[in-house]
Known about the structure:
The structure holds two protein chains of two kinds. By secondary structure, chain A is α+β, with helices and mostly antiparallel strands.
Amino acid sequence: xxxxxxxxxxxxxxxxxxxxxxxxxxxxxxxxxxxxxxxxxxxxxxxxxxxxxxxxxxxxxxxxxxxxxxxxxxxxxxxxxxxxxxxxxxxxxxxxxxxxxxxxxxxxxxxxxxxxxxxxxxxxxxxxxxxxxxxxxxxxxxxxxxxxxxxxxxxxxxxxxxxxxxxxxxxxxxxxxxxxxxxxxxxxxxxxxxxxxxxxxxxxxxxxxxxxxxxxxxxxxxxxxxxxxxxxxxxxxxxxxxxxxxxxxxxxxxxxxxxxxxxxxxxxxxxxxxxxxxxxxxxxxxxxxxxxxxxxxxxxxxxxxxxxxxxxxxxxxxxxxxxxxxxxxxxxxxxxxxxxxxxxxxxxxxxxxxxxxxxxxxxxxxxxxxxxxxxxxxxxxxxxxxx
Amino acid sequence: xxxxxxxxxxxxxxxxxxxxxxxxxxxxxxxxxxxxxxxxxxxxxxxxxxxxxxxxxxxxxxxxxxxxxxxxxxxxxxxxxxxxxxxxxxxxxxxxxxxxxxxxxxxxxxxxxxxxxxxxxxxxxxxxxxxxxxxxxxxxxxxxxxxxxxxxxxxxxxxxxxxxxxxxxxxxxxxxxxxxxxxxxxxxxxxxxxxxxxxxxxxxxxxxxxxxxxxxxxxxxxxxxxxxxxxxxxxxxxxxxxxxxxxxxxxxxxxxxxxxxxxxxxxxxxxxxxxxxxxxxxxxxxxx
Lengths: 387, 288
């Protein structure tokens, strides 16, 4: 068991493709670290460098305090679960799980004992004599896990191990993997593009984009305090509403300019955030869908919207709202397509399943003043102080 | 007519052309060969002589020599598989210049075996390339004449045969290697396997069916496609040292004008290849 440290690790493919750019990340002993990000963000390359399957262009990578940049995969004492499981098709489940032990010269009895123990943990005992092709997707996934845990390695590396499973099985295996990881207490690096997996499984989550680490925090901190617009938009389903708005001075302090409507910004944000001056370029204002509340009557801190679309999900309804002017026309919100991330001009609100809103309705909504987010309009970075 | 019956009838109707072709081009000639093996036939007229062709043939030492030659040439099959396997594995590692090497190794496949035979004949000849190489290496007192000696001509033929099979079998194994999921090798590397272990435990089991196919194709070629090489390189000699069953049929029929005996030899070769084919099919069929 060991801790893992990426220190300024960079991977360049060919002449100029920077797959991973100056990645610095520390995984504690026993910690479950999830690398998450969209396709091509460098998360799998980072994992493959950790496994020793890709060379490191620059930086240093250590496992258990030892720099492993030039150590062969077989000498790193890590186990990996592949996206397609990579089970040896001509071997039985028991042979697949015992292969690494056999190579290390352990006796038959010892191999059989360890494979038996791992199979019991994974509920695979009755399948030990089967070949991989005679197993279901979930069973194959468990064999791949078994092959990893039977070795008692220093670290587990998992490359999207659940992406080939159906939705129900994925939920089951999510719990199963988390259970086994806690049981064994081995440092784990888990790669996924699924933010629900990231949120539910990780002790900490590292969000990557374009080869660079965007933020690494506990799932709740990541959700509550995204460090930039990308993280805000990536974590959460549906993602945070991000609107580019202007600022205006009023009697109490400042207000957001939403077309012809004005929304007061509580004064506490002026001290906790580095908000720009009122005549500046404006800010990107963020609000989570669950922080948009429908009101029965107009109030001073509400805004007028029109229902454009309604998606019933059973337990909740997602309502797509556009801001309206006093005359009922759609308000113009700046939508700069060349921005750090694409910003919609609409708000999405999560509502209870019994909400009677219909498409075309004009409704008053209140935005939860406790949970406003502000990002720099140019860099996309959060304007919150003391991050 | 019931639907089931109509389907059965349709099956028969669709199979008829194929059945006609098989009967016309395979069944009838085999039947004729059996008939002619009981006759004295000079190509124009045939006289029924009963089983005397059969009894004479089995007392003919040339038949046993040809059979022995076929048997000895089988010893070249492992080389015709192992060498291409090594080449394919090396090319699969993407060694420097692998694209050029791949073309070079496949080149013999695209060249007529007659041409290959001529090249080989010049290579092994007394004043040929092989002796030039030996002399260039400083062994001027050593000279070989493999095609000139009964004891060595078959070896030269076997070497040439292995050479002609390298391209096809290398391509076959490269195709097999291309279907090997690279993550299996990566998984094995992480599991602690070195190169040799990966080859033995992952690559070779994966290639099993491709090796079986290459084996079948090589043996079939050995029994039925060596004629042009022998004709160009040795003419079956010296003596009968490089005469195989296939070449003996030609010799007996067209040089000696004894088509009755040639038909009998054809039947014997047919039975042998049939047995080999069945054994091979069983071998492949045993793999799930």
